[in-house]
Input
Amino acid sequence: MKREEMMLACSSDLAGKIRGKAFPAAQFEKRLHRGVGWTPTNVQITCFDVIAESPFGSLGDLVLIPDASTKVSIDVEDNVPPEQFVLGNIRYTDGRSWEFCTRSILQDALAKLKEISGLTLFGAFEHEFQFCNMGDDGHGAFTLAGFRAEREFCESVIAAMRQAGVSPDTILREFGAAQYEVTMNPQKGVTVADHSVITREVVGAVANALGRQPTFTPIRDPAGVGNGVHIHISFLDEEGNPATWDGSSKHELSPVAAKFVAGILKYLDSIIAITAPSVVSYFRLTPHRWSAAFNNLGFRDREASVRICPVSDISDISKASQFNFEFRAADATGSPYLQLAALVYAGIQGIKENLPVPDATAEDLAALSTEELASRGLVRLPQSLPDALERFAANETVTGWFPKGFADVYVKHKQREIKHVEDLSDQAACAAYERVY
Ligand code: GLU
Ligand code: MG
Output
């Protein structure tokens, strides 16, 4: 049968899902101007495909305008047209940004960062996922055998990332059952989130072609190993030079980077509903899982919400260029655009408030009393999505970063998602999320 090359114009929504519409690839140039039609209430389609309370009802029309720089064309199967998609921004039909377009929200946050500090964000996402149709693969963490068992998959993912314009870094058999991790090289600005989205979709496309079923769900079993998203962040100054490292400062953080980190930690309890936005995210965010359970800074500590990553003296890359910090309280149930926007706005707030450099923790915080934690400015992160959402909704500084009406719509979206799983056992809720992420 004859097949025609198609292109899907997509956007990442509040559920972190990539949704879009396909058009014949031959129309690409035209669609860069016209886009594809979009519907406001789509923003309230939860990850379980039920529609939350929507202020838009059946009214209104929008356009999803592709950004040609994100065009992906990958050959994941022989003798058929390539799989093609392009990411974009949702706009009103007069061209204005739509308040609920996650990519526009991030672009606004990045523009504000530049305006107040002159800094450009430079970063990358790390993704962990598990194959859910193979039980425990029996291969150990980081083993050559584990890599070999999925060599075709791993090699195909890396080739497809490259073909999609993403610069691959590493791929490995992680610690959990049939768990793998893929990392990419850092990019500037909105491309950091674009490449996270593209990589997740590339993993899905390759897996599909090879009969694998990957899940990026935060945790498959409340007692199991988590699939984290770790967001690496550093900055470039106006001349494009690294601006995160200062060898003579506390924790080697440059003054502006330290304030940015302090802002993230100060507002973390109120933004976690955006960075770890599912019911099951909170099974992962518990102590001793190498995820994140407190609003702490760790100097090379993998149990911290923000970890200062190592620099090596023997690398061919300068220390200033290597230096970055990593946000660990995120997972793939969130939109990378919203996650990064929340972090950037919290960082901007830290710069504006001129917050002091946080102390780094180096002990088991779960063993400390609440009073002892409080005396050091530390709190346990919210332990459920309803709790996290309440903190978000109640923090006017945080909701004020986002466009008018955003917070209310976001909370309603998430409340509908919660309702979908609230009568399920923890295990059944994990299974429900595993089916959709
Ligand atoms: N799987 C852990 C998580 O849920 C991370 C392990 C690691 O340090 O890579 O974040
Ligand atoms: Mg890992």
DSSP finds 14 helices and 16 strands in the chain. The two ends are 32 Å apart (CA to CA).
